[in-house]
Amino acid sequence: MAAPGTAPLQVTVQPASARGAAATHALLAAILGATTDVSDLIFSPGRPPQVEVHGQLIPVQAPGLGLLNADHTRRIASDLIGNNKQAINTLREQGSCDISFGLPGVARFRVNVFIQRGSCAVVMRVIGSMPEFSTLGLPPQLGEIAALRDGIVLVTGARGSGKSSTLAAILDRINQQHTCHIITIEDPIEFLHNHQKATIHQRELHSDTPTFALGLRAALRQSPKVILVGELRDRETMEMLLEAAETGHLVLSALNAPNALKTLERIETAFPASEQSWLRGRLAKTLRYVISQRLIPRKDGGRVAILEVFKNTPRTVQCLQAQDPSGSALLEAIKSGASEGMQHFDGEIAKLVRAGVVDLATVSSYASDPQQLQNTLSQ
């Protein structure tokens, strides 16, 4: 059943007109051709195909295609995985696998196939064209990242908040402006970067390197200037990231954390308590930016990204080095650091409310301090 007020998406393809993978390809092409702004496609037994548009799930209706069953989703998964033996083994052994999939002339996808109740389900994230600063609405001061010689830049936020797009835009800016060697380690490869001024090599987890940490360790012997690690998942990768930054590399990565304070907390708690003071000192020397993202609903439909930006400054360095479990000093430094290129979530939400882009009643739950946001806007 469609969500209240959400009409089913009608597509004209008839899957029975094709056989094998061609049927799946035809269905995907028809779905993406029938509407814009699709972020995800979901294939689950007991449901029709679904698409996510601006955070809303919409069922897909096609002639001859009703509710999916386990055979349907297993066939779709098989068509997407193809002869990728590593993905097949990972699915069997771990219950899920990540792959990239391209439909020539239509789109690229990041695909997760997983087992639930003994049957396959598939979630496909649509990867758009190469994102740019202007189209993403990134703050212009982030263009400074392309000129950094070394250090760590982290892009954080919930899954689906646009971290990969922001990282791709930053990497593309470096690729356009600097003659250097870039190595990426991704799971899976999403945006395809062509050589521009830079020489860029993209490595995919499992098929090109077994783990992020091993790929990063190898990258240190491959003479890169810039290294992108798709996601920080464990202490070993964090340790290697710090080592890479300390030895003169610019390292970009993503982390699932809601804001700068939680990002630092996640990194710190990955290490033993006896090492945390030493770790804060290392971060103070290497961490250049933490860019945290959230997507909030617009008044006129769709969503708009808001960003919190932490930047390495003398004041934030002092905050990182200090023992401040509450993080209040660092939070205040971010809030008052606009002249240095920093910005805070609630300040950005307030700007959008005043500009009439978003409605306070709708977006106050996205604020770090909803009550303070309301007090600020009532003044």
CA-based gyration radius? 22 Å
User: Uncertain regions: pLDDT < 50 for 5+ in a row?
Assistant: 1-5
Q: How many structural domains?
A: 2
**CATH third-level topology of the largest domain:** Rossmann fold
The first-level CATH class of the largest domain is given as: Alpha Beta
Order of strands across the main sheet: 1-4-3-2-7-6-5
Q: Strand count, sense and closure of the main sheet?
A: 7 strands, mixed
**What is the approximate shape?**
globular
Strand content: 15-25%
Q: How many runs of DSSP E, i.e. beta strands?
A: 14
Contiguous helical run count: 14
> In CATH, what is the homologous superfamily of the largest domain?
P-loop containing nucleotide triphosphate hydrolases
What is the H/E string?
Answer: EHEEEHHEEEHEHEEHEHEHHEEHHHHH
- How far the N terminus sits from the C terminus, by CA atoms, comes to 44 Å
Bin the helical content.
25-40%
Q: Structural class per helix/strand content?
A: alpha/beta
CATH architecture of the largest domain: 3-Layer(aba) Sandwich
Mean pLDDT: 92
Describe this structure in words.
By secondary structure, this protein is an alpha/beta fold. The protein has two domains: 9-127, Beta-Lactamase; 133-343, P-loop containing nucleotide triphosphate hydrolases (Rossmann fold). The chain is built from 14 helices and 14 strands. The chain has helices at 21-34, 70-81, 85-94, 133-136, 163-177, 212-219, 235-246, 260-269, 273-286, 314-321, 328-335, 345-354, 360-363, 370-378, and strands spanning 9-10, 38-43, 50-53, 56-61, 96-103, 107-116, 119-127, 151-157, 181-186, 199-204, 226-229, 250-255, 287-297, 303-311. The strands form two sheets. It has a seven-stranded mixed beta sheet with strand order 1-4-3-2-7-6-5. Helix 10 packs antiparallel against helix 11 and helix 12 (345-354) crosses helix 14. It is globular and about 65 Å long.
